[in-house]
Amino acid sequence: MTAHALHGDQESTALYDVPGPNALRRHFLYGIVSTVVILGLLAWILYLLFDTHQFTAAKWRPFVYEGIQELLLKGLGNTLRAFVYASVLSLVLGAVLATGRLSVHRPVRWAATLCVEFFRAMPVLVMIFFIFVALKVQPLPALVAGLTLYNGSVLAEVFRTGINSVERGQREAAYALGMRKTQVMTFVLAPQAVRAMLPAIISQLVVALKDTSLGFLITYEEFLHAGKLIASNLDYDLPFIPVVMVISPIYIGMCMLLSWFATWVARRERRSPKTKAVEVAPAEPGTVLPGR
């Protein structure tokens, strides 16, 4: 066994004691009890659903109609459209505000800090309602604007923290080479900060995706709004629970997909080497200097 392997084994077990026979039996017992509790809870929920007649054909019949399917697909498309707009604009706004917070000019830094702290503290729903009601903006722009202001201010702090996490020596070395501040930020600090920022950025985009559901409160015809129209229809016996059982997995699936992507990016960044081996040409006799 090599020294590297021994070192790796020491690192993996330094803060972890291998469980003994008694501990293994306890862990096995805890696992059985937890499984029984979870299965019992699921069985109780299913009993309540059957007892309240949530699986009757009348409540599930709407989903076989082509018009209902088109309504849901249209709502899903509107949700994704609002998410794409809000994501792109949030990234742009976050970059602008982060640049302002890192500025050497005090008025610019104060103004950017005020914007970030104000929009981070303001509830998203309040901003959306204010833009929609007070400013009389259409539902889609109002929803996108509210999501952009909130998520952009949060991403600004993510960007600023990522830039500041780069070692100070990197910045000083770049300035010593005669690079301007814009060049230092673009070619030295930002590329190194991406490794630390990317998972947090994608996680914040998950929040933006979930918050698009607030659009139904301002009559934006997104996915949740389409589900509400179906659930409140008396002709279909008010299929509220079936609508929830159809819409929720789709929302959860989209959020899990983004979360999985963030995890995959973080794992890939951790595995990727910081430096790559390059072939070096063998040394050859150089030109004799004058005077030698």
* Average pLDDT metric: 82
Helix content: over 70%
Question: How many helices does DSSP assign?
Answer: 11
The value of Rg in angstroms is 28 Å
What does the overall shape look like? flat
Q: Helix and strand string, N-terminal first?
A: HHHHHHHHHHH
Q: Could you tell me how far the N terminus lies from the C terminus, measured between alpha carbons in angstroms?
A: 52 Å
Largest sheet: none
DSSP E strands, number: 0
Which structural class best describes the helix and strand composition? mainly alpha
Q: Which stretches of 5+ consecutive residues score pLDDT under 50?
A: 1-14, 275-280, 286-292
Residue share in β-strands: under 5%
Key traits:
mainly alpha; 11 helices; disordered C terminus
Question: What would you say this structure looks like, in words?
Answer:
With 292 residues, this protein is mainly α. Helices cover 74% and strands 0% of the residues. The chain is built from 11 helices and no strands.
Fold blueprint:
Layout: H1 3-13, H2 21-51, H3 57-60, H4 66-101, H5 106-121, H6 124-134, H7 139-164, H8 168-176, H9 181-211, H10 223-231, H11 240-271
Helix pairs in contact: 4-5, 4-7, 4-10, 5-7, 6-7, 7-9, 8-9, 9-11, 10-11
